């Protein structure tokens, strides 16, 4: 997969720089919200076929997927999770007060799956604590397998990145993921699978 260089992005009054090829290119606000305030709509709540379980070293994280917002992105992560693609992958970019990013088999931010890139599926849903977003390059239609989970509100990402799920339980485990770009000792996804395939 083509490797992209790091680029510096100037954000008004925010001042974040140095983002990887498949990374959100804006820094978050420091406001916080609970993941529980992000209740799903569109009939996806409590739907095991659209629920991912992500096992981290400190415990399980439950993610409710949103096919009503981003059907292609949801289908992609379900397909890859069913193949075991995410098992053992590193959180290669984890910024305190912003987000934790994973989904690259190379562990560098430059890789992805062998499947084609996805077209953007932007919506009016804001990026808040627990929101799952698709990482991409500066090309809106370049998301593949990488994703990030927001630690807090990230209004600068609204309408610029695809929202396709949210953490509904276990956000405290996401908070404990090792920080860094990359972390000196990165944490990994032990296993990630659909609730319908739970062991």
Structure description:
Strands 3-4-6-5-7-2-1-8 form an eight-stranded antiparallel sheet. It has one domain: Cyclophilin. It starts with 50 loop residues before the first strand and ends in a 5-residue tail after the last strand. It has helices spanning 71-82, 171-175, and strands at 51-56, 59-65, 91-95, 99-102, 131-134, 147-150, 163-169, 191-194. It has two helices and eight strands. It is mainly beta and 199 residues long. Helix content is 9%, strand content 21%. Its EC number is 5.2.1.8. Pfam families: Pro_isomerase.
Key terms for this structure?
21% strand, mainly beta, 2 helices, 199 residues, Cyclophilin, disordered N terminus
Q: What is the compact description of this entry?
A:
Helix content is 9%, strand content 21%. The protein is mostly beta strands and 199 residues long.
Mean pLDDT: 84
The total of beta strands comes to 8
Low-confidence stretches: 1-20, 25-39
Strand content: 15-25%
Q: From N to C, what is the helix and strand string? A: EEHEEEEEHE
Judging by the overall fold, what is the CATH architecture?
Beta Barrel
Summing up helix and strand content along with how strands pair, one would put the structural category as: mainly beta
- Give the CA-based shape: globular
Distance between the termini: 33 Å
Main sheet: strands, sense, barrel: 8 strands, antiparallel
Strand order in the sheet with the most strands: 3-4-6-5-7-2-1-8
The CATH fourth-level homologous superfamily: Cyclophilin-like
- The CATH class assignment is Mainly Beta
Number of domains: 1
Helix content: under 10%
The CATH topology label is: Cyclophilin
The number of helical elements comes to 2
Calculate Rg over CA atoms. Answer: 15 Å
């Amino acid at each position: 997969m083509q490797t992209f260089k790091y680029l510096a992005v100037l954000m008004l009054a925010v001042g974040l720089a140095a983002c990887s090829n498949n990374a959100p290119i804006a820094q978050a606000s420091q406001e916080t919200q609970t993941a529980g305030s992000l209740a799903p709509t569109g009939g996806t709540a409590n739907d095991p076929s659209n629920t991912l379980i992500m096992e981290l070293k400190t415990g399980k994280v439950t993610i409710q997927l949103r096919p009503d917002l981003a059907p292609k992105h949801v289908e992609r992560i379900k397909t890859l999770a069913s193949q075991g693609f995410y098992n053992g992958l590193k959180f290669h970019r984890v910024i305190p007060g912003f987000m934790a990013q994973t989904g690259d088999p190379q562990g560098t931010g430059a890789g992805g799956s062998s499947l084609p890139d996805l077209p953007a599926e932007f919506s009016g849903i804001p990026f808040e604590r627990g929101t799952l977003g698709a990482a991409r390059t500066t090309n809106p239609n370049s998301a593949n397998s990488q994703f990030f989970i927001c630690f807090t509100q990230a209004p600068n990402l609204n309408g610029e990145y695809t929202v396709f799920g949210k953490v509904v339980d276990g956000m405290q485990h996401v908070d404990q993921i090792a920080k860094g770009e990359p972390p000196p000792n990165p944490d990994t996804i032990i296993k990630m699978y659909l609730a319908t395939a739970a062991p």
